[in-house]
């Protein structure tokens, strides 16, 4: 092509883009005026609470690794015979099926929701990846992994968009109130990362604990990559995040759950808590030598930096189980000093996995004590579901029981 032609083509292209832009503006202007189609975020009923049967069920989705959400996205590590008809749409189909099969009360996405490095438009990938969650009308929340920000949006932008999506209860970071350290004279401290927040789950409607937190959920940003002492490694949870965690947990200590109806049956200890983040902590490799439920099939890709997350959980006392992702072919739960650490197991078809080892998801079920008149949480269970023909349920186990 000679340069004159090239210039003409370029002008023509600019002309087309201008027309497109004008018509889009015109239509969006119209859309904005039309009452029916004004976009406002749809919110779930809050607070989160147990059902009237005294249960609260969480679906953990780890590592969707979503791309553009079209049939051209290739699946990794499936059988040669499955390869041709496999794409991101299989990930979407799995999410829809599992929501229908398990009917959870809440969905927790533990990072690498999108595979940024292969996604041309992060916002579009996010909308498509979380589409089934938004359509379900269930409250859902997400944290980031190490790949989410590799496309067109920063971690802050990703978390703010995620927090604005329909039925999302994700937050960018805790409110200033929770960050205030009174021993520093009420000075505000900044927290590292994006996507550190606490969600409280109230007791069943109409019960004695209907206005009390009976289960706490902590979400943490475990970062992406970092260089430590000249060596490239994965991110880690920082001291500012641990300080915030300790402070929030401390607030529940000795709190009368229901000041209006004091009763011996309602405990004044902290409610049990569950934590969700992406990158495993450096203690996880020790589980190789412990009894585990599920499979340990790949080296734990944790950070070289041990920032004391495990010690913090132990000293807090309320965290009973921790749910992580990142290593797609590990799906086990193992116990360290009374705290369970559970992998979700890889969910998405565009992320690496293992052929003939179905993609999977984890379910967590918390049950309140009592019959008709529900009390504090008595038991927390977990199991996994496979994306096979029967959506097989495997590895059911008890994570925690109140004494
Ligand atoms: C939107 O609907 C409300 C109530 O139905 C009405 O009062 C208002 O004028 C409408 N606004 C527009 C821009 O149509
Ligand atoms: C992907 O979805 C298609 C269409 O539903 C289905 O035929 C195919 O078996 C699925 N592949 C895998 C690996 O699940
Ligand atoms: C919880 O709050 C609601 C609304 O304020 C009130 O009607 C109900 O009696 C409260 N329940 C308990 C157990 O305190
Ligand atoms: C508050 O700040 C002080 C001084 O930096 C620190 O030693 C202390 O651990 C902090 N307290 C909490 C609860 O984070």
UniProtKB/TrEMBL annotation:
<comment type="similarity">
    <text>Belongs to the metallophosphoesterase superfamily. Purple acid phosphatase family.</text>
</comment>
<dbReference type="InterPro" id="IPR011230">
    <property type="entry name" value="PAP14/16/28/29"/>
</dbReference>
<keyword id="KW-0964">Secreted</keyword>
<dbReference type="GO" id="GO:0046872">
    <property type="term" value="F:metal ion binding"/>
</dbReference>
<keyword id="KW-0325">Glycoprotein</keyword>
<keyword id="KW-0408">Iron</keyword>
<dbReference type="InterPro" id="IPR004843">
    <property type="entry name" value="Calcineurin-like_PHP"/>
</dbReference>
<dbReference type="Pfam" id="PF00149">
    <property type="entry name" value="Metallophos"/>
</dbReference>
<keyword id="KW-0862">Zinc</keyword>
<feature type="signal peptide">
    <location>
        <begin position="1"/>
        <end position="25"/>
    </location>
</feature>
<comment type="subunit">
    <text>Homodimer.</text>
</comment>
<dbReference type="GO" id="GO:0016788">
    <property type="term" value="F:hydrolase activity, acting on ester bonds"/>
</dbReference>
<dbReference type="GO" id="GO:0005576">
    <property type="term" value="C:extracellular region"/>
</dbReference>
<protein>
    <recommendedName>
        <fullName>Calcineurin-like phosphoesterase domain-containing protein</fullName>
    </recommendedName>
</protein>
<keyword id="KW-0479">Metal-binding</keyword>
<keyword id="KW-0732">Signal</keyword>
<dbReference type="InterPro" id="IPR029052">
    <property type="entry name" value="Metallo-depent_PP-like"/>
</dbReference>
<feature type="domain" description="Calcineurin-like phosphoesterase">
    <location>
        <begin position="56"/>
        <end position="329"/>
    </location>
</feature>
């Amino acid at each position: 092509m000679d340069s004159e032609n090239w210039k003409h083509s370029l002008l023509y292209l600019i002309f087309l883009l201008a027309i497109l832009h004008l018509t889009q503006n015109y239509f969006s202007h119209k859309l904005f005026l039309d009452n029916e189609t004004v976009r406002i975020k749809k919110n779930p009923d809050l607070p989160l609470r147990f059902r009237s049967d005294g249960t609260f069920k969480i679906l953990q989705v780890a590592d969707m690794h979503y791309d553009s959400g079209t049939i051209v996205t290739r699946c990794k590590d499936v059988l040669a015979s499955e390869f041709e008809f496999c794409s991101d749409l299989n990930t979407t189909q799995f999410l829809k099926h599992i929501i229908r099969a398990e009917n959870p009360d809440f969905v927790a996405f533990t990072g690498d929701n999108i595979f940024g490095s292969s996604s041309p438009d992060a916002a579009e990938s996010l909308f498509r990846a979380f589409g089934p969650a938004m359509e379900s009308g269930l409250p859902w929340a997400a944290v980031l992994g190490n790949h989410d920000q590799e496309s067109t949006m920063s971690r802050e932008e990703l978390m703010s968009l995620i927090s604005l999506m329909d039925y999302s209860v994700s937050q960018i970071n805790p409110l200033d109130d929770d960050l205030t350290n009174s021993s520093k004279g009420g000075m505000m401290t900044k927290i590292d990362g994006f996507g550190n927040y606490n969600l409280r789950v109230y007791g069943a409607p109409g019960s004695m604990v209907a206005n009390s937190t009976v289960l706490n959920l902590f979400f943490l940003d475990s970062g992406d990559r970092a260089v430590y002492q000249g060596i490239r490694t994965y991110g880690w949870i920082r001291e500012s995040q641990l300080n915030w965690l300790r402070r929030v947990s401390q607030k529940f200590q000795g709190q009368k759950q229901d000041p209006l109806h004091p009763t011996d049956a309602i405990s004044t200890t902290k409610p049990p808590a569950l934590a969700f983040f992406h990158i495993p902590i450096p203690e996880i490799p020790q589980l190789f030598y412990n009894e585990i439920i599920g499979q340990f099939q790949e080296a734990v890709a944790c950070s070289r930096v041990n920032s004391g997350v495990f010690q913090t959980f132990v000293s807090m006392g309320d965290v009973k189980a921790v749910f992580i992702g990142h290593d797609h072919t590990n799906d086990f739960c193992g116990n360290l000093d009374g705290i369970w650490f559970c992998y979700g197991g890889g969910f998405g078809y565009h992320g690496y996995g293992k052929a003939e080892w179905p993609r999977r998801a984890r379910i967590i079920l918390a049950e309140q004590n009592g019959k008709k008149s529900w009390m504090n949480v008595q038991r927390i269970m977990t199991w996994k579901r496979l994306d096979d023909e029967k959506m097989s349920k495997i590895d059911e186990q008890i994570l925690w029981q109140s004494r």
